[in-house]
Specification:
By secondary structure, this protein is α/β, with parallel strands linked by helices. It has helices spanning 50-58, 84-95, 97-126, 130-148, 152-170, 192-214, 233-238, 240-256, 304-318, 333-349, and strands spanning 2-7, 12-16, 19-23, 29-32, 37-43, 47-48, 63-66, 72-76, 265-271, 296-302, 321-324, 329-332. The strands form four sheets. The protein has a four-stranded mixed sheet with strand order 1-5-7-8, with helices on one face. Strand 11 (321-324) and strand 12 form a beta hairpin. Helix 6 crosses helix 9 (304-318).
């Protein structure tokens, strides 16, 4: 099974017999076998014929649409889970404030522990710096605070403070001078490193959502992020423990190993009062202070070549194997996402008493 990545503003996806054919702008034809296709990710304005869409839906192939800037637009979702009793228990869990807080705490603690593991690893490889000492101390303090909070709102505040400290140390792990990262920015990303992080978080969230749906869970009924109309809260919850081991480490690798170059990015200027950037809920990183109206903003995005490089590296990463402690064996990140979603399901059903996040070693 493979993931198909289609990036174009003039290509088309059609059907021939029982297979798909992608025709690029230069009329190059690529045959796609549905039974060997796990996901289709479409970036840009690709025309999909009605016959092609029917074949995609017949084979129930998940499809995600991203803008040319890598912003999440939407997904093709197939029949909702028929397990109404499971979903009923999810909704009951939302009303159980104590249990919801316990699960949210586990998720945040898992995320912060993974952040701490990574910055300690950076400290060992890059040497002692003031940024590391301050970040490690602050993140450890945030970890203790996360264990003591009495509300989800307070927990979100602790998570946000930990993220700021973590990213201050994260920046020290970027070797190339042209790898720009002063702080975490999004909607839009305002540096090349932020562009890669945002794109990877978008991809990661899609795969987490697919894993959750495979378990028959409702993606909108989560415990940590704020509930909102049409928002896949549970996906945003469970993605947290995978940000560091997949997206953040991969971002550093892509820059430090010179897989990406300055030529893989493009910029776009617009004013803050006229920008039209969707309020993506993909990340739970606090928004930076808004620019004053009329200020010029320079957004940085991956270009076509850059997106292809990042996507290929991402697929390789999620298929790589690491130790999964609960199973006491090596498993791919894709398999671990499925296992974590299944664990969450067991907690909802009362088959397990606590949700245990994935820890990065």
């Amino acid at each position: 099974m493979s993931s198909i990545f289609i990036l174009s503003n003039s290509g088309s996806l059609t059907r021939e017999s029982e297979h798909l054919v992608y025709v690029s702008y230069d009329m190059k034809r690529t045959r796609i076998l549905p039974f060997r296709t796990e996901h289709i990710i479409i970036v840009g304005n690709v025309t999909v014929s009605g016959d092609a869409m029917r074949l995609i839906m017949k084979n129930e192939i998940p499809v995600v649409y991203l803008s040319q800037n890598g912003t999440f637009y939407g997904r093709i979702v197939y029949q909702d889970s028929k397990n109404i009793f499971l979903r009923q228990k999810q909704f009951q869990l939302l009303s159980d404030k104590k249990k919801s807080l316990e699960i949210a705490k586990s998720i945040v603690i898992g995320k912060i522990k993974n952040q701490l593991t990574f910055i300690q690893r950076i400290k060992r490889s890059r040497g002692t710096k003031v940024e590391f000492e301050s970040a490690v101390k602050g993140v450890k303090s945030a970890l203790k605070n996360a264990e003591k909070v009495s509300s989800v709102d307070s927990l979100r505040g602790v998570e946000g403070n930990a993220a700021k400290l973590y990213f201050s140390a994260f920046a020290c792990n970027l070797i190339p001078e042209w790898a720009a990262f002063e702080k975490r920015t999004r909607n839009p990303p305002q540096s090349n490193v932020n562009a890669v992080l945002s794109f990877l978080y978008s991809l990661l969230t899609h795969y987490i959502t697919t894993a959750i749906e495979a378990q028959g869970l409702d993606t909108m009924a989560g415990c940590l992020h704020e509930l909102n109309y049409g928002r896949d809260v549970l996906a945003f919850d469970l993605v947290e423990e995978f940000r560091v081991p997949i997206a953040d480490t991969l971002t550093c690798y892509l820059f430090n190993k010179n897989i990406l170059s300055e030529k893989d990015f493009r910029t776009q200027d617009f004013s803050s009062e006229s920008r039209n950037v969707p309020a993506s809920a993909i990340e739970n990183v606090p928004e930076e202070e808004a620019e004053s109206a009329g200020d010029k903003i320079t957004a940085v995005y991956l270009n076509d070549d850059g997106m292809k490089k990042v996507f290929e590296a991402f697929i390789e990463k999620i298929n790589s194997a690491v130790i999964y402690a609960p199973a006491k064996k090596r498993m791919s990140f894709l398999e671990i996402m499925m296992e974590q979603s299944n664990m969450y399901k067991r907690v909802v059903l009362g088959e397990e008493t606590e949700y245990k996040p994935f820890y990065y070693r």
